[in-house]
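Hi! If you just cloned this repository, the fastest way to understand the data is to look at a raw example. We've pasted two of them here, unedited. The first protein comes first, obviously.
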Amino acid sequence: DTEIDPLILSHIDDRASANYSLGLIAETENDIQLAKSYYLRSLDADTGFIETNYRLAQIYHKENDFENAKKHYHQQEKLSTTTGDLLLGLASIYLSEEQYDKAEDYYREAIALEEFNVQAKLQYAKFLLTVRHSQNGYELMQEVSALNSDNKTDQTIGDIYFNTGLYKEAVSNYKKIKTP
């Protein structure tokens, strides 16, 4: 997920690449502040380093620094093709900021972009159930469940049902989980 094609790296300033790599190492060692400093140095060397913007957006998002997260998500979007992960990140931020219409737009865009993105559909379904109080969320989860019956999906759907008070549906999904 965090690997970059060597052809892409070939045109990027070596300092940007080195600092990006050091940031990845620091992140895998769970030293998030050090990772952030390396990523910022990477952008100082090359503001167009797409993956650095994405990694910073994710870090800022986890720290609830939504303004910086949005800045880096939008920078990545401007420099590269839009991805489902990018759109879901923005949807999550706008949801946290209670800007529900913007959040919904990003969820819909993520699903339109990647029709088979299970996580996008499940996050949107949860949004529909918890924020919009819409039956469409329930129907979307049933659709995902019918097309993607695996333990992770069944667990996620069960958790969403449980957390929204739909206990009968949660039990039904938890029972689908296959034990090794």
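Ok, and the second one:
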Amino acid sequence: RLVEVLKRLGRFSEADAVLGPLSAALPDSPDVLRLEIDKQLRNRSVASAAAVAERLLDLRGDDAAWAGVTADLQLRAGNAAKAEQIARSALQQHPDSTTLIASVARAMIAQGHGDEAEALVKDFSTTRADGASHLLLAQVLMYLNKPTDAEHAIAAAIQHAPNDAVVYAAAADFWGARG
């Protein structure tokens, strides 16, 4: 708790000084590992944060959210193939996870496999048929410079989730960006 209080007060160097001995004393503590990830990211060391996230994922095992975070950190650290492997592995346990499909798709696109990422997300959005999966498809399509197809995905997201404010916010962002 002291580390969190010090961080909230903006006393990061003191928080880091307290975290060092904590990390040594409690190397397998999920709370300490999360604090270490935060420290590494504040210090702009994405590769170190990704390595710590992998340790945390090993401890947490079957956690889709942490698998997605770990994959995304690996991607940002320049390890797209490893990011894809982490996300795909977790996807076996959580086949309905939009977060993990997004992580796989981002990793595939980073490796130059945009068409395969599009096919993966299209299949997922057809199977799931919900607002979030169609928003993900729209994001992938926009990244692949397919704005007309992305419009259709946005429309499908609204159709599948007509009462979801997040869907409308994403649609507004989409239409605002298109002018």
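That's it. A detail worth noticing about the second one: DSSP finds eleven helices and no strands in the chain.
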